[in-house]
Amino acid sequence: MNIELSQIIGYLLPAFVWVFGIGITARLAFKKQAVSVTLAWLLIIFMIPVFGIIAYLILGEIKLGRRRGESFKKLAPLYTEWFSSFDQCSNLTLSNEKLRFKPLFALSRYRVGIPCVLNNELHILNSAESIIQTMIQDIEQAQKTIYMTFYIWSDGGLVNDLTSALIRAAKRGVRIQILLDSVGSKRFLGGRNYRYLLDNGIRIEEALHANLFRMFFRRVDLRQHRKIMVIDDNISYTGSMNMVDPRYFKQHAEIGQWVDIMVRIEGPVSLILQGVHSWDWQMETNEDVALLPQCPLLQHKPDDSHGVQILPSDPGFPQDLMTQSLLLAISSARHSITITSPYFVPSSTIAESLATASIRGVDVKLILPQKNDSFLVEWASRTFFDELLEAGVKIYRFENGLLHTKSILIDSRLALVGTVNMDARSFMLNFEVTMIVDDLRFGQEVEALQASYLAQSSLMDAHVWYRRPIYKRFFERLFFLFSPLL
Fold this sequence. Notes:
The protein is α/β, with parallel strands linked by helices. It has 18 helices and 19 strands. The chain has helices at 2-30, 35-47, 49-59, 66-84, 102-112, 128-141, 158-171, 186-189, 192-199, 269-285, 321-331, 348-359, 375-382, 385-390, 424-429, 440-454, 462-466, 470-480, and strands spanning 117-125, 145-150, 175-181, 203-207, 228-231, 235-239, 258-259, 262-266, 306-313, 336-340, 344-345, 363-369, 394-398, 402-403, 406-410, 414-418, 422-423, 432-438, 457-459. The strands form three sheets. A 15-stranded mixed β-sheet has the order 4-3-2-5-6-8-1-9-18-16-15-10-12-13-19, sandwiched between helices. The longest helix is centred in the N-terminal third of the chain and has 29 residues, at 2-30.
């Protein structure tokens, strides 16, 4: 009986591999996506057939799942109309003739329907202590609502102080709802403080619940990676920091403390961020959300206000949205480009665009962490260094912890700050949010922040890099083959 079973398996397994291998190859041939992604999948499927086929069936297609897909289609017209209704207000940034980077704002407006909104005050907070303490001060003043979306929520240190402030707010009647990623916040969602918050009237929802039994029906690695906090419709925060105290977070990784920023926003663009949160909340809960009017908040126009474009991205939006936005920003640079990113595995198109910018005389700087918490990303990112260094791009390695800030500054004026890493996962899979600001004053604030990172970094020596051992080159190329899938 065992012999007969083994014979059956011996016939069926090759047939399984052949049928699914041919089917997936045909699917990849007709699928519109980056050639590098197609080649990476073909390599995996033909080098490790059984593993490759199973991996593609689970991870190869960007599927929200039937329920979320239907919910997105239902909600998209509602939110698009609501975002577009800001056009009825008289002072949108796109009408400002002094705006230098109009094409980028026009692209964002056209692709997602969200206009750029004036009358906002912005301030960068660049330490965990200043971020959380300022959040606590605003929570203590909250009167109506607090909405939060985070990838990671981890107890300990200052986060416990913020939790206490939220409970005090809930007890005085403030409506609080928190959306947390299923994987990133797994430990918190199963912990004591999670239940304590629920017992005190705070709503917490698990986003993109990870369920292995449904892995063939939707991507199990889609992640809610946004970081948003909105208080009383007018004060908001977004940036790169999860709800963690870095003194207590991932200390075992031996990479130092995570270095992050959040931008505190006071003004009507907070409503846009609230709309992004509400859209995600409705997709998870199917609850109706009353969207607020906007124009009454836009009547006053101080001379020093900032125009802010909010650019959300996720698998429901066009897949090439972030790539197009970054390429347009890079190509618009005349003098300088400075990028900070913890995970630098860009598409070949973006890497070539950075190299081309340097060749045409733009001062291009990359600030990347010296030590990374992702072994695969660290090796894959090195593959791009040869091309970039040869083109004159300056690569700095940050030595004082894991630089987790995601920022791009063009010509000391155009700033892109948010949650997006320079990798395929952020471009295609994660639920992300980016704020775009075309403003010299805010640009100077971002420039000062990046200068502080440069002071803690060492410049890579191209000649030393070119003399690295052959075995390192081998591993770089090996992991680069999988870079479109990281």
